[in-house]
Amino acid sequence: FVAVAKVGDVPDPGSQLVEVGARLLVLVHAAGRFYALDDVCTHDGGPLSDGPISDGAIVCPRHGAKFDLSSGEPLSMPATQPTMVHAVRVEGETVLVKLADQ
After folding, report:
1. Which end of the chain offers a freer environment for a tag, N or C, measured as fewer CB atoms within 10 Å?
2. Measured between alpha carbons, how far is 62 from 50 in angstroms, rounded to an integer?
């Protein structure tokens, strides 16, 4: 796990672009929980970190595809493939992320 932010850095609801190694992730704080997803819309590669958070999902600002914060599964077209989600834990005031494929 790698420290990526302080709890107070990300409003609830809100998101922040973070870097883990060479990977860009969107760190989302919603309904008291933190989530980490690849900062990539699987429809056209758009930055999810620029999109709004709504009802347990993040919305791609380019074409409106929605992704479930917990699973990364697409909830609406035009996306049909999930984006990768990563493990998150909070220790004290520090938010840590572990890449799913490491």
Report:
1. C
2. 9
Q: What are the tens digits of pLDDT across the range 6-57?
A: 999 999 999 999 999 999 999 999 999 999 999 999 999 999 999 999 999 9
How many CA within 13 A on the CB side of residue 13?
12
Distance CA 9, CA 79 (A): 29
On the question of pLDDT at 76 being above 90, the answer is yes
What residues contact 18, with CB distance under 8 A and at least 6 apart?
A: 4, 5, 24, 25, 26, 27, 36, 97
Residue 41: exposed, middle, or buried by beta-carbon count in 10 A (0-12, 13-18, 19+)? Answer: buried
3-state secondary structure of 70: coil
Task: Name the residue among 22, 21, 29 with its Cα closest to residue 5.
Answer: 29
User: Does the pLDDT of residue 102 top 70, yes or no?
Assistant: no
Whole-angstrom distance, CA of residue 68 vs CA of residue 92: 26
